[in-house]
Amino acid sequence: MTARTTGSLRVNGATLHYEVRGEGPLLLLIPGGTGGAASFDDIADDLASAYTVATYDPRGMSRSTLDDPEAEQRVAEHADDAFRMLELLSPGEPARVFGASSGAIVAVHLLTARPERVARVVAHEPPLVEVLPDAAEHRALIARVKETFRTQGLMPAMTVFAEGLKKDGDAPEPKAEIKLPPQAAARAEQTMANLPYFVGRIVPGFMSYAPDLRRLEALSDRLVLACGEDSRGELPYRPAAFLAERLGTELRHFPGGHTGLTTHPAEFGEHLRKALRV
């Protein structure tokens, strides 16, 4: 196992926990969903043979605390947190950035806001639903999730959210049971602890975000859009596919589905290595 150092970074309205391992050019990994720095434990050591790998808990998640726990969460502020990480760990040197799910939204905004600090971004299934032709339907979904969370609680809201992410018109298909790696299974407790914050703050704040498409077109040579092989037709797949076509770039496919990082870590890490090459 590669040795790692930990630290804390004070940013506007929060204190971020981060971890660093390896040496070489900086690779910043931005987690999505309820994940924190630990969600990359299954791939970070391998990547650290070629990069200085930095991971962190996004503000409000796990060990990164908010000054105001009730504060609304905005993509631009989370992207500024990522920028502050780059300034701390790779001052003056453009870095590679990977983001998964909501973390991919952060990475996309970071690219458009601070392109001078980013050499390459790999965005895995960013749920940028505002770019889709049927964006109004997804706004209605988020409104239903928020109202269900307010009136009925966490798990009913998660049920509404999960239904909205399924393949269009599909009944749930039975899936083969996937045995999670031991580290991933051990993270389940922390994942559940982060869930109320994710549903109540991250989902509404991030899925209402609309990227600057003109800026993305100008920077498309630095952006790699990726999806899971098993995600075809599901909502998180569609924005990346739409953007790849809009930007005229290749849509890359990684092993597994939306959570392929967790279910297929070795194969996922190998695909990420290839996508990061500038």
TrEMBL record:
Positions of the AB hydrolase-1 domain: 25-133
Any GO BP: glycerolipid catabolic process
GO terms of molecular function: triacylglycerol lipase activity
Record-linked SUPFAM superfamilies: alpha/beta-Hydrolases
Species: Streptomyces nymphaeiformis
Record's protein name: Pimeloyl-ACP methyl ester carboxylesterase
Database matches in InterPro entries: AB_hydrolase (IPR050471), AB_hydrolase_1 (IPR000073), AB_hydrolase_fold (IPR029058)
One Pfam assignment: Abhydrolase_1
